[in-house]
Amino acid sequence: MHTSFHLLLIVVLLCGRANAAEQRPSVDKSPKTDLSELLKIQSDVQKLLPRVRQALVAIQTGGGTASGVIISADGLMLTAAHVPNGPGKDLKVILEDGTVTTAKSLGLDKTTDAALARLKDRGKPWPFVNLSREVAKAQPGEWCFALGHPGGFDKARGPVLRVGRIIKQTANSLHSDCVLMGGDSGGPLFNFNGEVIGIHSQIWEGRDQNVHVSMAPFLRSWEAMQKSQVIKTWGTGAGGYLGVATVMNDRLDLEVADVIDASPALKAGIRAGDVILSVNGEAMTDQQQFSAVVKARAAGDTLKLRLRTHDKERDVSVQLAQKPQEEGQ
To answer: Less crowded by CB within 10 Å, the N or C end of the chain?
Structure first.
């Protein structure tokens, strides 16, 4: 089946969902999407697909089939940790054109389900895509699309594409309504810039409960994972520790409600009542975004906060710490 037909079918299905929403407004409260927007989505994906699909791979292991994506010309590859299930494992990899090669798994984080692997050197560059380093921008409501090899590699069928939206963001994961199937694990979730924003991790029962590892665990543990280390520091997935509680005030500003004693925030001079305008130059609009930005950074990383107190603005640099253990732990 041709790619254009796949995409047209997706648009027809989405139109059906939108029309159903118009006919049953009291039951389906999902936002309406008009035909012009759907056609724009189809056009955008058609432009991106020929490039990004070249970096998609199928992976065969002793436990079955999975997917992965190449993110550098020298063969660095992202997949889910439960695919190799450990460093130093040999993986059979199948490229877009059916070429078979091998890769070796590197480091991984079993808690967040993030893993790296390296394709063997072939003497010329590998096709690759970029990953997004703007983790907090993958917000609910954003359009995205998933690629993978459900059921294993099938050259006649090719990769399977699903278009959808992000419905939830946590410190280490994204949830989308891009339906996943067996064999998709480790495959990429893309934004509409053609950048990887997630790696398929868990297939839940609900259509809108498909879980992808975000780029946060990969970025904060990049060097350790390339050295084939198993990440344990991030077992709770809590990210770096700042030590503030925030609220949205009456003017819809992100305001510091409380600062914890002996925390990095207190030592840096952050006080209750300060309004957080930006972090590392990125404007902060709500608590979820701010939490995701902090949790995506490791202990020891430095954040530059732009604050406003009354009518005066100032910049504060804060070095994040490890979250202190509760008494008795």
So the answer is: C
| d(C-alpha 295, C-alpha 267), whole Å | 19
Three-state SS at 3: helix
User: In this predicted structure, what is the pLDDT of residue 4?
Assistant: 41
Q: How far apart are the first and last CA of the chain?
A: 56
Dist. CA 203–CA 145, nearest whole Å:
16
**Residues 21/28, Cβ–Cβ less than 8 Å:** yes
Closest CA to 127 of 68, 212, 184: 68
- The model's pLDDT over 41-55, given as tens digits with 9 standing for 90+, comes to 999 999 999 999 999
- Evaluate whether 284 touches 294 at the Cβ level (below 8 Å): no
85 closest CA partner among 65, 102, 68, 105: 105
CA dihedral for 241, 247, 253, 258, sign (positive or negative): negative
Q: Cβ distance 305 to 278 under 8 Å?
A: yes
* Contact between residue 75 and residue 120 where contact means Cβ atoms under 8 Å apart: yes
